[in-house]
User: Fold these one by one.
Assistant:
Number 1:
Amino acid sequence: MLQLDALTVRFGGLTAVDAVTFTAEKDEVLGLVGPNGAGKTTLFNAVSGLVRPTSGRITFESVNLLNIPLHRRARMGIGRTFQIPQPLHELTVRENLVVAQRFGTGRVDEVRIDEVLDFTNLAGRAQRNAATELALTELKALEIAKALCTDPKLLLLDEVLAGLETSGKRRFMKMLQDMHKRFSVGILIIEHDIETITQLCDRVIALDFGRLIALGTPHEVFSDPDVVRSYTGAQA
Ligand SMILES: Nc1ncnc2c1ncn2[C@@H]1O[C@H](COP(=O)(O)OP(=O)(O)OP(=O)(O)O)[C@@H](O)[C@H]1O
């Protein structure tokens, strides 16, 4: 579904993503790991259209994304969440979903919004102010809900589980697994926690200094000497 061929993003002299090649399929949950600064968010930005690649190619369902702007990528089915939840201030939870859906699809589908509110356990909070009246777990659920409203085929999730305590994290992981099946949405997820990635993902990509250093099952990747070294080095 999504294919990256030698994708490279440079910021001046810094190569944030360095000739990365891989394919993500609709029926899988794919993890993206690597130490801080490895290039994970930049890769997401290139796929969603926030950053223009320096070289290489990104195709989605065989369409070259190079000259396709952000909103059209959303309409093609590429959804994303941000590391720091970004609700629209002054608006309720439901209004946030309406805005996100209109941007991502060009229309408003109240039935879909109700279904998504229900699925993300936000139905009881629909009339609350999204910026000031939600707990962290609810804010993160809203990020997922905003993306789900746009009927995505592929969701890019940027550290959606970060900051949650154990039980919240467990509930959220279950929601992501259910979402993958119920809405037939492929998932590409950035996450630091090895246990979470191992439980959630079919395959994992490890980046280090922008380069893809391992790709395989969680077990294969987390036992790869280069990955162990990159994680140990990062902690040291
Ligand atoms: N707009 C930008 N301009 C210049 N440098 C940038 C820009 N965005 C990211 N970088 C740099 O590119 C490199 C990769 O950053 P990126 O945020 O993609 O890493 P990451 O793996 O997502 O890190 P983290 O886990 O901390 O979120 C870093 O060295 C970062 O400082």
Number 2:
Amino acid sequence: MNPITTLYPVNELFETIQGEGMYTGTPAIFLRLQGCPVGCPWCDTQHTWETSEDAKVSAQQMLAKTSATAQWAELTAAQLLELFQQQNFNAKHVVITGGEPAMFDLRELGQTLEQAGYRLQIETSGTFELKLTENTWVTVSPKLDMPGGYLVRPDCMKRANEIKYPVAMQKHIDALDNLLRRCPPRADALIALQPISQRPRATELAIKVCIERNWRLSVQLHKYLNIE
Ligand SMILES: C[S@@+](CC[C@H](N)C(=O)[O-])C[C@H]1O[C@@H](n2cnc3c(N)ncnc32)[C@H](O)[C@@H]1O
Ligand SMILES: Nc1nc2[nH]cc(C(=O)O)c2c(=O)[nH]1
Ligand code: SF4
Ligand SMILES: [Mg+2]
């Protein structure tokens, strides 16, 4: 194992219901890491993009936040596990998201949490090499032609247990078809379309294409329920 303890920049840590993808409805601990250079114009977590030393706070200050801010706390895997216990979280499913969590080596975190009985899922754009435990459930949400200029990696597409693609227009479906041809996923990978920002026309399009292709619909349930 890597002898150097990995430090993780944590924007948020909370317990809720997974609102997206295959595990929709599952109680889960969300660990949101700070930093993302991809730049999706419609991103719903833009406060996680920049990592500023000025915004570094203590773990207790990070936990006490009542709104979405760029404040983050630096924590090790062992400190995170301790916080899970301190917060009396019940969930055994841990979703690592961000920001772009694949910018970090998540193996130490995965090993520590799996040893304590947790199951991990990562939400990633598929633009960074994945450093994960073998058992981590990988949700790749491909980002094509975004301002940051990052490319979706074929190895991420192959590792994905699920491909969860944000859509609003037909051109997005065409771009996904092209990606699936260039970078084929595993035969058993689940494919889901996620309407961008609950827009009615995006939702109609996603429903139509899911029925035609026998794909899943992922609607960001938490936004309909007004929960985190
Ligand atoms: C905020 S991202 C963080 C993880 C990683 N950077 C990624 O993009 O997968 C978490 C999920 O939210 C999705 N997402 C972000 N903004 C959205 C929006 N406005 N509407 C629908 N899905 C959105 C992303 O595509 C991704 O599946
Ligand atoms: N409830 C809930 N489910 C989610 N699934 C993926 C999320 C994310 O931001 O990655 C998310 C989120 O922010 N909240
Ligand atoms: S890759 Fe994820 S966190 Fe980064 S801008 Fe896009 S949706 Fe937001
Ligand atoms: Mg979210």
Number 3:
Amino acid sequence: MIQLDGITKTFADTTAVDNVTLELRSGKTTVLIGPSGCGKSTLLRLIIGLVEADAGTVTVGSHTVGPNTPPEIRHRMGYVIQDGGLFPHLTGRGNVAILARHLCWSADRVEQRTEELADLVQLPLDRLDQYPNELSGGQRQRISLMRALMLDPDVLLLDEPLGALDPMIRADLQTDLRDIFQTLDKTVVFVTHDLSEAAFVADRVVLLRKGQIVQTGPMSDLLESPATDFARDFVQAQRSILV
Ligand SMILES: Nc1ncnc2c1ncn2[C@@H]1O[C@H](COP(=O)(O)OP(=O)(O)OP(=O)(O)O)[C@@H](O)[C@H]1O
């Protein structure tokens, strides 16, 4: 379980996260949604320890996360960002293996795990020999997900992983990701702007505004009983051509 207690983070005169207390349940997918600049990415970066809180604590399992968090704890969290964040000078295979090589895994073990993950994310093995600029956006994200899963982390943090993809590839990956989350039983924190994507993957949604939590609960609560005028407006702002 991940527990945030009274977390505040300010950059110069911007309070990105404002006294957030939140429990992220093990084995569940929590989606952080809210308008641009409401603090979603900063919350993920606080959880993985890339950003240090001004106040409050982040606990992952029984460990407090901070600048001195040992690598073993960070390795229990996989992190995927919008454009994949792959190293351009490494092939897909090189990107996937980077942490395992750093930890001196044998070549056989790296290869076996790579094949297992390619199967999981449904990526043809030959794609792994390409460099990122030779791959489609969807393939890059599948490789980025493999890299995040390589060490079999307990926690998966995904920051708008599908934001840059065209609608059909995005829908395919939404389905695959939801299946993967359910199969692997990881604690997942997923950031998106898109309410229908949130509804598709989330066990629970957290709506943020100006660094504060507006509402948490199942998507049905947000849709049927928005807690504030802002929550109602946020839901209504997502137009659908199907209604
Ligand atoms: N390293 C930084 N230095 C200065 N300001 C920052 C930094 N990181 C984030 N901020 C500011 O903190 C606020 C929250 O940013 P954050 O990226 O967490 O929002 P977000 O909800 O993820 O936005 P988006 O949906 O646009 O990605 C914003 O006002 C942003 O400009």
Number 4:
Amino acid sequence: MDNLLYSVESIRAIEHAAAAALGEGVLMQRAGQAAARFALDLLGEHRKLPVLLVAGPGNNGGDALETAANLREAGVEALVLYLPGEAAPSAETARALARAQASGVRFIDALPDHAQLGLVVDGLFGIGLARQLQGRHAELALRLDTFGCPVLALDVPSGLDADTGAVVGVNDDRVAVSATHTITFIGDKPGLHTCDGRDHAGIVRVDDLGIERHHFVAPDARLNAVDMFASDLALARRPQNTHKGSFGDVVIVGGAHGMAGAPVLAARAALLAGAGRVFVAALDPGLAYDSVHPELMFRDAVSFDFSGRTVVAGPGMGDAPAARRLLFKVIDSDSPLVLDADALNQLAGDADLQGKLAQRKAPTVLTPHPLEAARLLGVTSAVVQADRVEAARELAGRFDATIVLKGSGTVIAENEANGVAINTTGNPGLATAGTGDVLSGVCGALLTQGWSAGTAALGAVWMHGAAADALVEQGIGPIGLTAGELPGAIRSILNRLVREATVR
Ligand SMILES: NC(=O)C1=CN([C@@H]2O[C@H](COP(=O)(O)OP(=O)(O)OC[C@H]3O[C@@H](n4cnc5c(N)ncnc54)[C@H](OP(=O)(O)O)[C@@H]3O)[C@@H](O)[C@H]2O)[C@@H](O)CC1
Ligand SMILES: Nc1ncnc2c1ncn2[C@@H]1O[C@H](COP(=O)(O)OP(=O)(O)O)[C@@H](O)[C@H]1O
Ligand SMILES: [K+]
């Protein structure tokens, strides 16, 4: 259950059903108890230090008031900055306010200056956030992380859209609270894990408030996890009586003049992720040899026979007419196909290619970064980033393919109901040239070893991110991590996961 994600609309439906069964105010009380428990964990040995809680006008503020009362009753000094709205609070928030007042929490009018605090709790806005934070709310959001202590957001960091992970607003001065931790209620939410979400939410803990499962609706998405591609991991164990032909061929199509690095990176990644044979079908005939991996075979792209081979098209492909002709040929083939980089840019402007793509029956994975996705959708990258989940869904539907929308919290979308996952591995060390080429090569390698488009995308993205995390753990990055260091780390992870998934 822990990797399920719910939209705000779904959370409201669950909340409605549960509240009708439990009675008014029970969920808020439970939220306040769960948050206080987490706050005490975070305080650890610093229980003598005061906790600052900011409470907004809605029920998120009610949660903060409940939390404050619970902390006070646990002997912690609680300072509450309560900012009521113009409208009267809900009945449960009014009760939480009365409870906080009776419990002896200290109400303050402004943030304390130079105070030593044990924890800051953000209960300004949750899923009821309706517009960009402004004025005092914006000022507060910017200051909550300046006390040198952890910041715990209740439900959602205030200012962040729980569905999309974008900071709400249109202009450059939009702001949201930057929390170190978030306790999110009822179910986990997509916006905590993609776009700006990872920066603002920190470590996410989910508390279902004890709501019985039958009140839950179907999840809207999932967090990518090993169990989502475990079926193919288990099948990847290698029998003894095999040969290189048993594990498929990958051919990287790209490498126009002056762009040799991209296909070589993709090819090395495909090799180390287990493809039996890897070719580079290069547009530039001068590209002939990789001294690091002489196992790679270089061929002329135009005369290459793609049949029976998995194709990764795009790395360093350029936009020359010859590249377009090749692309048409591979899209028209029945080879499993990964389209990346320049292949996606060509596709974006070419209705004939798009028509051919729509007719494909073989597994097809598209791996756009936000700008490539924007070109495919005919919008700006800002529009894509404003709702990454929706953009990936839209592309999956439009091209009838598996979509990997890259970036922090990569979104993997398949053209099926509920077929959206958000990846949790990876870090900004990946924000360096060539890492996307590595991802496309890994995806090709998994496809050619018989994985489905969906599991190949989920597995490749998960391992690619986990490899970057492992390298950072070893001090190799995030600053200065290079794409070329990823394939070796991915190989280790793939072998470990296959070992762990294999039941003997
Ligand atoms: N109900 C339940 O059973 C449970 C609910 N739970 C908790 O409740 C939270 C949802 O509560 P909620 O619906 O009251 O919304 P919330 O996020 O507090 O904000 C709405 C208020 O803010 C205002 N407002 C909005 N944007 C604004 C802005 N930019 N700037 C200024 N004002 C703005 C808006 O007023 P408006 O001005 O838009 O009329 C309204 O007053 C949820 O996240 C969870 O924490 C849990 O206890 C579990 C059980
Ligand atoms: N800040 C980040 N956090 C997590 N992953 C990232 C981040 N920045 C980039 N990545 C990942 O790195 C890869 C970059 O791919 P791409 O943009 O195509 O780069 P290139 O074309 O240079 O290879 C993608 O897999 C993307 O998800
Ligand atoms: K909040």
